[in-house]
Design a protein that fits this description.
The complex is a heterodimer of chains A (264) and B (340). Chain A has 264 residues and is of the alpha/beta class. Chain A has 7 helices and 15 strands. Chain A has one domain: 3-Layer(aba) Sandwich (Rossmann fold), CATH 3.40.50. Helices cover 25% and strands 30% of the residues of chain A. Chain A is globular and about 70 Å long. Classes of the chains: A alpha/beta (264), B alpha/beta (340). At the A-B interface, helix 3, helix 4, strand 9, strand 10 and strand 11 of A face helix 4, helix 5, strand 5, strand 7 and strand 8 of B. The complex binds flavin-adenine dinucleotide (FAD) and adenosine monophosphate (AMP).
Chain lengths: 264, 340
C-alpha cells in the first residue's frame, strides 16, 4: 500500500512574541514546526506501517529548501521517501496555485490514499485538501478523528469525522483524500536513538519547476488569484465596551448579545 | 423573470435597473440555516443595501427560512445527492452558476461549507478567501478581512479580476436584519450531472461531552467575587450548555479542582465566550485566555482589568446576575416553545 502524506511546516505561532508597545508580532527567530494536524496524519500512516510493514510512505511538502533538515527527521522516523517541491517561481503562491502545483506532482504518482491535515496553523484556510480533491477527482473528507486500521488495506477507509455537534462515520472508497485533525490524538513517535544521525539524504527528492514545467506567469505571486493587501495585528484592547447594570435593561442587553452571537 | 425582479425593487429609494444589479448566491447549509442567511449582511456590505439580486441555494431542503429575505430560493432536488456528497453538490452549483453567472458566491464556513467552497472555487477557476470576518473597501477595491496565525493577525485579501468573487464566511460573525419583506421566487433545480458517490454515511452519534475546559465553547468562570457562592455558576452553565472554570483564588481556597483553573499556572483556554464572574483579571489569569472571541464580565468594580477586555461589563453582583440571566433564558425559551 502506498500512502502519500502532505505536510506543511508552519511558524510555531504559540510561541510568537507580541510586542504590545509597537503593536507588532516579533517574527524573527520563529521556529518552523510540522503543522500539528499533518503530524497527526503522518502518525496514523506510521501506525499502519508498523502493522503492515510493506506499506510505503512518502511525505510531500512544498516549501523552501531550508526545511530539508526537518524532512530528514521524518525519514528517520520510518518514512520511506520525502519529496520537497521547491522553486523560486512558486514563492508567494496562494492556495489555488499551491493546489495546482501539488496536483501536478501527485497526478504522476501512484497511491492508494492521500493523507493531509485539516487545517494549517498559519494560513488556516483548509483549502488545499478540498482543492486537491477537485483537481484529482477524488472524494475528500476534513476533520477526520479516526481511521479504522483493519479495513484500510482493502481499499476501504471507515472514518470518524468531527462534525461540530455529532461524530459521523463514513465509508470511503480509496483512493481518497483524508484530512486528519490533531484532536484525533495520533502522536508522531520520537526518532529512535539509533536513527538519530542516520544518513537519509538519498531519500530526499527535490522537485523544481524544471520537472513540473509551469509557465512562470501562472504560478507564484503572479499566477495567484488572491492577494494579501495588508496585515495587521489583532488588537486585544480595541473592544467597544458596553457598561450595564444588573437590571432588566442590562440583562436584556446581555441576553440579546448571547442571542445574536448564537450562544443561546 | 427580469420583469419580476425589477418589480420588487420599485419604490425603493435607490432605483436601479436590473442591469447593474449584482447577482449573489449564498449556500444554505441545512445544519446552520440561520447563520447561512446571515450571509446576506455580507452581500449588503459588499454592494450596499438593495444593490443586489440575492439567490439562496439549498440541497433537498425547502429553505423556507429565507422566504421574504432573498429574491430567489433555488431548491436543488435530487434524492441521489446526500448532504455529504460534495462532488455532486459542486456539480450542481456549477451548473447553477453557468445559468445565472453570479457576481459573488458566499458559503458559510461550516464543516460542509469549508469542504465545498474550495472545491467549487477550483471548479470555477476563481480565487477563494476563507473564513471572512469583515468587509472593507480600499481605493475602490473589495477587501475581505480574515484572521490568520490562529487569530493573532488579521489579513485583508483582494480577489484578482475573475468573477465570481468567492468566500467562505466565519460563522456567527454577521447578523442580518431586514425591515423589508421581499417577494421571493422559488425555483426547483434538477441537476443533470450526477455521478455515483464513493462516500457513504454509516452513522452519526451525538458527541460525548468532554469535561476538559479547553474543549468548551463557552466557559462560565468564577473568581474571588463569587467565592461564597461558587456552586451557583452551575446554574448558568446548565442553561448555556457550558462548563465552569475558575481563577486561582477559587482553586487555592479549595472550592474547585486545579483541573478547571484558567491562567499561567492553570490551563490556556480558547472558548468562543468567556463569562468572568467576580474575576479581577490579573496578568497571570489573562495569560490563560488565548483567542477568546467574546468576554462578558460581571464585577462590582468597573475598573477591574478584565473589564477592559470585555464586550459587555455588567457592573454589579455576580450571583444576582446569574439569577436574573437564568430567569431570562428560561422565560424566553418557554415563549419560543409556546409553553406557559
Ligand atoms: C506565578 C503565578 C502564577 C499564577 N497563575 C495563575 C493562574 O494560572 N490562574 C489564575 O487565575 N491566577 C494565577 N495567579 C494568581 C493571580 O495573580 C491572582 O491572584 C488571582 O487570579 C486572583 O483571582 P481573582 O481575580 O478571581 O480574585 P480577586 O483578585 O479577589 O478579584 C475578585 C474580583 O471580583 C470582584 N468582586 C468582588 N465581589 C463581587 C461580587 N459580589 N460580584 C461581582 N464581582 C465581585 C472584585 O471587584 C474583583 O475584581 C498566579 C500568580 C502567580 C504569582
Ligand atoms: N505547501 C504545502 N505542501 C504540502 N502540503 C500542504 C501545503 N499546504 C497545505 N498542505 C496540506 O493541506 C493541509 C491544509 O492546509 P491549508 O489549506 O494551508 O490550511 C495541510 O495540513 C497540509 O496537509
Amino acid at each position: 500500500m502506498n500512502i502519500i502524506c502532505l505536510v506543511k511546516f508552519v511558524p510555531d505561532v504559540d510561541n510568537f512574541v507580541y510586542d504590545y508597545d509597537r503593536n507588532v508580532l516579533v517574527r524573527e527567530n520563529v521556529k518552523m514546526i510540522l503543522n500539528p494536524d499533518d503530524a497527526a496524519a503522518l502518525a496514523f500512516a506510521l501506525k499502519i506501517k508498523d502493522k503492515y510493514p510493506k506499506t510505503f510512505i512518502e511525505v510531500v511538502s512544498m516549501a523552501p529548501k531550508s526545511i530539508i533538515g526537518q524532512l530528514e527527521d521524518l525519514l528517520r522516523r520510518n518514512v520511506d521517501k520525502s519529496t520537497l517541491i521547491s522553486d523560486k517561481a512558486f514563492v508567494g503562491s496562494d492556495t489555488y496555485i499551491t493546489s495546482k502545483i501539488l496536483a501536478k506532482y501527485l497526478k504522476a504518482q501512484t497511491f492508494d490514499c492521500i493523507l493531509t491535515g485539516t487545517h494549517a496553523l498559519d494560513g488556516d484556510t483548509s483549502h488545499v485538501p478540498a482543492q486537491l480533491g477537485e483537481l484529482l477527482s477524488l472524494a475528500q473528507l476534513s476533520n477526520v478523528l479516526k481511521i479504522d486500521e483493519s479495513n484500510f488495506l482493502n481499499s476501504i477507509a471507515i472514518v470518524d469525522v468531527d462534525r461540530e455537534r455529532v461524530i459521523s462515520t463514513y465509508r470511503v472508497s480509496l483512493p481518497a483524500i483524508l484530512s486528519v485533525q490533531k484532536e484525533s490524538n495520533y502522536k508522531l513517535p520520537h526518532i529512535k536513538f539509533k536513527n538519530l544521525h542516520l544518513d537519509v539524504s538519498a531519500n530526499i527528492h527535490v522537485v523544481s519547476n524544471t520537472d513540473l514545467s509551469f509557465d512562470e506567469k501562472e504560478v507564484g505571486i503572479e499566477g495567484s488569484l488572491t492577494k494579501v493587501s495588508r496585515t495587521y495585528p489583532k488588537k486585544m484592547e480595541k473592544k467597544e465596551r458596553i457598561f450595564v447594570e444588573n437590571d432588566d435593561e442590562g440583562i436584556e442587553v446581555v441576553y440579546r448579545f448571547l442571542k445574536t452571537k448564537g450562544y443561546v | 423573470m427580469m420583469m419580476k425582479v425589477s418589480k420588487s425593487y420599485t419604490g425603493s429609494s435607490k432605483q436601479r435597473g436590473t442591469y447593474d444589479m449584482k447577482k449573489s448566491l449564498i449556500f444554505l447549509d441545512h445544519e446552520n440555516i440561520q447563520n447561512s442567511i446571515d450571509l446576506l449582511a455580507v452581500i449588503d456590505l459588499m454592494y450596499g443595501k438593495g444593490n443586489s439580486i440575492t439567490y439562496a441555494a439549498c440541497l433537498n431542503h425547502s429553505g423556507d427560512e429565507a422566504m421574504g429575505l432573498v429574491d430567489h430560493i433555488v431548491n436543488i432536488q435530487d434524492d441521489r445527492i446526500e448532504n455529504h456528497d460534495l462532488i455532486n453538490l459542486t456539480n450542481s452549483l456549477e451548473e447553477m452558476h453557468l445559468i445565472h453567472a453570479f457576481d459573488s458566491i458566499l458559503i458559510p464556513a461550516t464543516q460542509t461549507g469549508r469542504m465545498l467552497a474550495p472545491r467549487l472555487s477550483m471548479r470555477l477557476h476563481v480565487g477563494l478567501v476563507a473564513d471572512v470576518t469583515a468587509i472593507e473597501h480600499n481605493n475602490g477595491e473589495l477587501e475581505m478581512v480574515r484572521p490568520a496565525f490562529s487569530g493573532k493577525i488579521m489579513a485583508g485579501i483582494v480577489n484578482k479580476g475573475r468573477r465570481p468573487v468567492m468566500m467562505s464566511v466565519r460563522q456567527n460573525v454577521f447578523n442580518f436584519i431586514s425591515a423589508e419583506s421581499k417577494n421571493t421566487q422559488r425555483t426547483e433545480f434538477y441537476p443533470t450531472n450526477i455521478q455515483p458517490s464513493t462516500v457513504q454515511l454509516l452513522e452519526s452519534k451525538e458527541k460525548e461531552r468532554s469535561l476538559d475546559i479547553r474543549d468548551s465553547e463557552i466557559l462560565i468562570s468564577g473568581g474571588g467575587g463569587v467565592q461564597d457562592n461558587f456552586h451557583c455558576l452551575d446554574f448558568l452553565a446548565n442553561e448555556l450548555d457550558a462548563q465552569v472554570s475558575a481563577s486561582r483564588r477559587i482553586v487555592d481556597s479549595g472550592l474547585a479542582s486545579r483541573k478547571i483553573q484558567v491562567g499561567q499556572s492553570g490551563k490556556t483556554v480558547s472558548p468562543r465566550l468567556y463569562i468572568a464572574l467576580g474575576i479581577y483579571g490579573s496578568l497571570q489569569h489573562i495569560e490563560g485566555l488565548n483567542n477568546v472571541e467574546n468576554i462578558i464580565s460581571v464585577n462590582v468594580d468597573k475598573d477591574a482589568p478584565i473589564c477592559s477586555l470585555s464586550d459587555i461589563v455588567v457592573v454589579g453582583d455576580a450571583v444576582e446576575f446569574i439569577d436574573q440571566l437564568v430567569k431570562k433564558i428560561k422565560n424566553n425559551r418557554n415563549i419560543e416553545t409556546g409553553e406557559k
